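Proteins fold reproducibly. Look at a sample protein:
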Amino acid sequence: QVQLVESGGGLVLPGGSLRLSCAASGSIFSMLFMGWYRQAPGKQRELVARISNDGSTNYADSVKGRFTISRDNAKNTVYLQMNSLKPEDTAVYYCNLQLIRIIIRNYWGQGTQVTVSS
């Protein structure tokens, strides 16, 4: 059993900042990646940022230089610091955990709404 609990979404003005958190619990050994995806209305879910087991990171081009993903291994928690937010960042943000279970298994959080608007 794997559970992901997200927090930190909300309403923010353009140019503002938010920090998302995702805490994982359960059988979370053999992690491949942990990260964040987002889905805006009428659009497909897309990768925002992810961090691998060895600490390497990947970012969507649209968030490079503005968002930072980090991880606290002791707490099994991943963070997404979002700065200089834009209206186009508005979406539901989902935490994702990829584990190796013979095949790669994806686990998802419930999603947290981020709205950037004046």
